Amino acid sequence: MLVSYKWLKTLVPELTASAKELEEKMSTSGIEVEGVEIPGEGLSKLVVGEIISSEDIPETHLHITMVNVGSEINDGEPLQIVCGAPNVRVGMKSIVALVGARIADNYKIKKGKIRGVESLGMLCALDEIGIPESVNPMKHEDGIFEMPADAVIGDSVLPYLDMDDEIIELSITPNRADALSMRGAAHEVAAIYDKTVQFDSKTLTESAEKTADKIAVKVESEKVPTYKIRLIENVKIAPSPLWLQNTLRNAGIRPINNVVDVTNYVLLYFGQPLHSFDFDKFGSNEILVRQAKAGEKMKTLDDVERELSEEDIVITSNGRPIALGGVMGGLDSEITDGTTTVALEAALFDGTSIRKTSQKFALRSEASSRFEKGINEGTVREALDYAAAMIAELAGGQVLSGVVESNDYQPSLHKVSISLEKVNDALGTSLSKEEVFKIFEQLGFDTTEVNGNFECIIPSRRWDIAIEADLVEEVARIYGYDRLPNTLPAGDNIGELTPMQKFRREMRAKLEGSGLSEVIGYSLVSADKALEFVPQDFPTTSLMLPMTEDHQTLRVNMHSGLLDIIAYNQNRKHDDVAIYEIGNVFHPALEGESRPNEVENLSFAISGNIEEKTYSQNAVPVDFYYAKGIVEELLADYENVSFVAFSENPALHPGRTAMVQLDGESIGFVGQIHPSMAKKYGISETYVAGLDMDKLLAKKPDQVVFTDIPKIPAVSRDMALLVDEEKSHAEIVRVIKESRVKSLIKTELFDLYQGANLPDGKKSMGYRLTFQNREATMTDEEISNAMTKISRNLEEKLGIEIR
């Protein structure tokens, strides 16, 4: 919302604060101010000049003009200026940029010669002094801008164009849509500074002829609480007066004509969207407001034909849509230079319906944004009458008697009660009853005391206030957030981390101790990436209206995001990347729930080299066993952890991937990204792992109790095994553990051989077994018995030959 400081001063006459002071005060009182701008800032030496003669330069479109710029400039002598504008004429008053002037884009005007003719300045169009094309009523080729006939020669043009105004840009949140109007902003400023508002009014003079004799209104849609219309006859369409054009331009709205500009002016003033129709184009004397029919079509003011659906509200006449309710009017009924009778509409539309329609057609307008957020339902008739009187004043029409409406809708005013004790308890203040009464009075609330409580009748312009907490907030911001005392929360309970928060910190420390860096990926990914590491029929959740296609589906894994980060780094020559993320993935909703089930996950990805190449060693690339080692370190406190070969995920290498199991239950995986997947992302050989944090936390072992380091030395024995090729290391270790040798503390594979001198289908594996008795030194007999027990178990269960 762009607020004119000049206009605001007329609505709050007692206001003495500057625009810059307002910027700070409003920002600390609940409505953020983005900034304050002066439209004419940076412009200089732009004055009113009158063309007293004009002579064409032969065989060109140029004119040699003599321009009177007043007695204070050039010793009162006229300036010779060469100009090519088609609308130059004697007696015309225009914008003159003197030699040395600064115009748009900081361009400096210099004395020069054009076609050999000396030119001492420039006659300007609006775009040449910085008026944007989007709000400029003139095209550049139309020529220079004509100043009003009563403009004083030699004066600066900036006040005439209101370019010396200060424009305050408010960042309005949805809950404070009451400030999306000049009257709303004035109420806010008046409340902050304890001033009174002063709104102008217009006298509406009606003709004897009744509106009801010429038009009827019928509303069939439940999404239109009220619909009102007036008729103004014998209007003359023309450009609006300069003050009105200036007002609209400073608010970011392009002036069109004296009827349409009035509706936009009232939109800014009241926050009430209006629409004007050419009544003679209706083809009927009845307006029907209804829901559109499926497949029904209409052409809107932007000359685009749109296919409607049953969720759209349409204004119809003679069986055809003439406006898309609350969003945009129809091309067939627009105001043109030939319009003589204006049908002026004011209505209330359902905000949700308007939002859906405006988003569907990408028709975001000043009107639709206000209907979406809410408007003052108590001033619909007032805004309509004000606009009708203003059109009659500017376009010379006669307003027919009465308003034709679907109903005389009046909003119900909320009553909210609160005690002084609750206000002070919530804010930590010790305000008196008189102070709180004063604040409610500043806000314009009709307040009485009932049974020791403040009972506030909330005006219709503040539809955001409905409960006690809203009143507390109003007291706080008017009293001043900076004046509230600093107090500590009451209570004996000291906050602490949740079990999951503690667990996340433990895992983070282990990962960073392994050399990985934390990243935070997007929770929203493309629909394709969401299914890369899960079955293609895995249920996902997507947004109905995503900002981009790349961020439309809630992730069900974090690996795609990590691969994107690796690709980003490797594309910038950072080849060695080791990253992790701990966050939520989104699985299908649990039974009885409507929202996706958020599951805490841990994922990491490593690519490139573990060790860089130096003079003394070659580079050490990352491999499966390095990634597996990190997983083993993360799960070092757990028992019964196993890694099972896994080849069913097409995103992972079938020969270098393992399912991680805990107590026989799958808790994640570790493996290499499939080469085709790596090629798709444009990354080098990469290894990833993922673990379910919720399952890990549920099975987290009790705290490990420290035990003394054994004083008795350990003893190692080696054994060589002749094993079938299909037997895995994990199976052998499992059988060794099942031998239940209490003194066995470590099993380590130190040799693996396949090749010559071995029977077909066999491989040789060498294991080093470490024994230790914490109470006494083990004897040779004890060690031999242990080795025999393990050997027998291997022979019986796996058919292994001890070499």
TrEMBL record:
Co-factor note (free text): Binds 2 magnesium ions per tetramer.
Domain spans labelled B5: 411-486
Protein EC: 6.1.1.20
Reactions this protein catalyses: tRNA(Phe) + L-phenylalanine + ATP = L-phenylalanyl-tRNA(Phe) + AMP + diphosphate + H(+)
Keywords tagged on the record: Aminoacyl-tRNA synthetase, ATP-binding, Cytoplasm, Ligase, Magnesium, Metal-binding, Nucleotide-binding, Protein biosynthesis, RNA-binding, tRNA-binding
PROSITE patterns according to UniProt: B5, FDX_ACB, TRBD
Span of domain FDX-ACB: 710-803
One annotated Gene Ontology cellular component of this protein: phenylalanine-tRNA ligase complex
Subcellular locations according to the entry: Cytoplasm
Pfam families hit by this protein: B3_4, B5, FDX-ACB, tRNA_bind, tRNA_synthFbeta
Residues bound to Mg(2+): D464, D470, E473, E474
Cofactors, names only: Mg(2+)
GO BP: phenylalanyl-tRNA aminoacylation
GO molecular function, one term: phenylalanine-tRNA ligase activity
Domain TRNA-binding: 40-158
Top-level taxon: Bacteria
Subunit description: Tetramer of two alpha and two beta subunits.
Assigned protein family: Belongs to the phenylalanyl-tRNA synthetase beta subunit family. Type 1 subfamily.
Name recorded for this polypeptide: Phenylalanine--tRNA ligase beta subunit
Source species: Lactococcus termiticola
Protein encoded by which gene: pheT
